[in-house]
Specification:
Elements (H helix, E strand, L loop, with lengths): L9 E7 L7 H12 L2 E5 L6 H10 L5 E6 L4 H4 L3 H6 L7 E5 L9 H10 L3 E3 L5 H10 L7 H11 L5
Parallel strand pairs: 1-2, 1-3, 3-4, 4-5
Helix pairs in contact: 5-7
Length: 161
């Protein structure tokens, strides 16, 4: 009889942006990812960049940091992200999703601002997260042509997540 060890679980860190207390989608996404075989460290709601950075330091095996927002203030909430990445405290790709701007008008400019803050990927449909995480893993954690993706994502997803 041969014993096989299960493959190591893929670790992601999940949380809701600092000014946002919406947790229902956060809990659903955590459950979905766990059902897909991921180990999820869920930081919950109202998570500042510094708390995400501490989680990344604690979990060097994390392959992505997932940040959700429903109140639309994610641009302000992620102001310290670029510095956290530059210092190496956030070592993995950052993926954001949800309602990413205030009001009903969405634009490519909003996505570009997020990429400028240090976001590596914007997800408009949480069901695509396993695919996105695999793409990022295959690319070695590097964002692949973020600017082109912003335009393509906007063209295909004119609705709010």
């Amino acid at each position: 009889m041969s014993w096989t060890t299960p493959p190591p679980r893929r670790v992601v860190i999940l949380g809701v942006a600092a000014s946002d207390c919406h947790v229902v989608a956060n809990q659903l996404i955590a459950r979905f990812l766990r059902d897909e075989g991921f180990e999820v460290e869920n930081l919950g709601a109202c998570t500042p960049v510094e708390e995400f950075a501490r989680a990344c330091v604690r979990r060097p095996e994390a392959e992505a940091l997932l940040v959700g927002s429903l109140n639309g203030h994610i641009h302000e909430d992620l102001r310290g992200l670029r510095e956290a990445k530059r210092s190496g405290r956030v070592h993995c790709p950052v993926v954001v999703g949800g309602n990413l701007s205030v009001g009903s008008s969405k634009s490519v400019l909003s996505d570009r601002r997020l990429y400028a803050l240090g976001v590596d990927r914007i997800v408009h449909d949480p069901a695509t997260l396993p695919i996105v995480l695999t793409e990022l893993r295959t690319a070695g954690g590097r964002a692949v042509d973020a600017g082109a993706r912003a335009g393509a994502a906007w063209a295909g997803h004119a609705r709010a997540s």
